[in-house]
């Protein structure tokens, strides 16, 4: 194993899949490949590495919306495999020719049956091992008015609309559906096909001790001062977190909005890998009854804050220790509780 004090940045070591965020990175990391998630506004000239592949993720926009996010067209000429998903497909087609895309009225938000097309006596590599009809989740407002020049359909829906397209000579793809969601059961295979078969990335390249290596690299960056920079604003939560970071104890309250077993996963990640003192509690039964049919945002926010404060207080009392709680000066509601053993009030 390389010495911790000589470890380069991950994108210098591992073939990296770059994801420009329009609103899919967890599924890719489940393939055990290294990914970088960057804002969709990131310009190619700002990159310090050449990615092995590029994914334009989905997002809740139309390319014709005022203020709609757009990517740097220079990525199209980088010579690497590209996959546009949902809005990413619309953005890809729009960048090539604005007349390729029309705003869908209404949009399509439902399951659809997608069938791979045979081209030159074979299925496209993107659909390797999933040639038959598959269920896929459509969630898009825009649609293709025509295929971009130099592209052909590699999959269609039951109404013959293009569900996936590919360039005739370059590894540039777009899918109208979302392969990263559970509603698309074979979506993980499609992502694997893109990453492994098309981008050529070894799906087991990232080592098990990646977190340890990254912690070592961060320590090297901090040099002998054993300090690292961080941004703060004037808020109470940021100030308390900055002051007490070396004595931080965290409480994760699950109010019922986390994914299945996500709280347990967060606890393992923070406790085992980052060695953060995290205590998780299930507060869903206490939070939901207090909302009833309430829809006012302020009421919901205050209910959330009160429930968070209550759960933190329960954890503190059970620990038989005294904590400092950071609260809002205006409302008294907790913004973030930061905290560890302090003098008793």
TrEMBL record:
<keyword id="KW-0547">Nucleotide-binding</keyword>
<keyword id="KW-0332">GMP biosynthesis</keyword>
<dbReference type="InterPro" id="IPR029062">
    <property type="entry name" value="Class_I_gatase-like"/>
</dbReference>
<dbReference type="InterPro" id="IPR014729">
    <property type="entry name" value="Rossmann-like_a/b/a_fold"/>
</dbReference>
<dbReference type="GO" id="GO:0005829">
    <property type="term" value="C:cytosol"/>
</dbReference>
<dbReference type="InterPro" id="IPR004739">
    <property type="entry name" value="GMP_synth_GATase"/>
</dbReference>
<keyword id="KW-0436">Ligase</keyword>
<keyword id="KW-0315">Glutamine amidotransferase</keyword>
<dbReference type="GO" id="GO:0005524">
    <property type="term" value="F:ATP binding"/>
</dbReference>
<feature type="region of interest" description="Disordered">
    <location>
        <begin position="214"/>
        <end position="234"/>
    </location>
</feature>
<protein>
    <submittedName>
        <fullName>Guanine-3</fullName>
    </submittedName>
</protein>
<dbReference type="InterPro" id="IPR017926">
    <property type="entry name" value="GATASE"/>
</dbReference>
<keyword id="KW-0658">Purine biosynthesis</keyword>
<dbReference type="GO" id="GO:0003921">
    <property type="term" value="F:GMP synthase activity"/>
</dbReference>
<feature type="domain" description="Glutamine amidotransferase">
    <location>
        <begin position="21"/>
        <end position="197"/>
    </location>
</feature>
<dbReference type="Pfam" id="PF00117">
    <property type="entry name" value="GATase"/>
</dbReference>
<keyword id="KW-0067">ATP-binding</keyword>
């Amino acid at each position: 194993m390389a010495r911790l004090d000589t470890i380069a940045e991950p994108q210098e070591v591992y073939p990296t899949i770059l994801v420009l965020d329009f609103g899919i990175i967890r599924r890719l990391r489940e393939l055990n490949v290294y990914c970088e998630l960057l804002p969709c506004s990131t310009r190619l000239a700002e990159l310090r590495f050449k990615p092995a592949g590029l994914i334009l993720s989905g997002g809740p926009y139309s390319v014709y919306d005022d203020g709609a996010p757009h990517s740097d067209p220079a990525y199209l000429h980088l010579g690497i495999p590209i996959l546009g998903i949902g809005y990413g497909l619309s953005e890809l087609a729009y960048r090539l020719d604005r007349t390729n895309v029309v705003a869908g009225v209404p949009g399509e938000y439902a399951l659809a049956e997608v069938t791979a097309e045979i081209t030159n006596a074979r299925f496209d590599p993107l659909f390797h091992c999933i040639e038959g009809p598959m269920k896929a989740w459509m969630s898009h407002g825009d649609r293709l008015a025509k295929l971009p020049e130099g592209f052909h359909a590699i999959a269609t829906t039951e109404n013959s609309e293009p569900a996936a397209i590919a360039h005739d000579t370059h590894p540039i793809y777009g899918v109208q559906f979302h392969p990263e969601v559970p509603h698309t059961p074979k979506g993980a295979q499609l992502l694997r096909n893109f990453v492994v078969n098309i981008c050529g990335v070894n799906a087991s390249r990232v080592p098990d001790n990646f977190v340890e290596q990254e912690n070592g690299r961060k320590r090297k960056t901090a040099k002998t001062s054993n300090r690292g920079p961080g941004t703060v604003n004037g808020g109470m939560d940021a100030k308390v977190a900055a002051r007490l970071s070396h004595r931080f104890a965290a409480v994760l309250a699950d109010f019922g909005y986390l994914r299945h077993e996500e709280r347990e996963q967060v606890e393992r990640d923070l406790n085992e890998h980052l060695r953060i003192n995290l205590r998780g509690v299930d507060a869903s039964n206490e939070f939901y009854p207090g909302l009833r049919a309430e829809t006012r945002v302020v009421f919901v926010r205050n209910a959330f804050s009160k429930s968070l404060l209550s759960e933190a207080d329960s954890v503190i009392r059970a620990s038989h220790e005294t904590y400092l709680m950071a609260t809002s000066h205006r409302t008294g509601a907790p913004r973030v509780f930061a905290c560890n053993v302090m003098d008793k009030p």
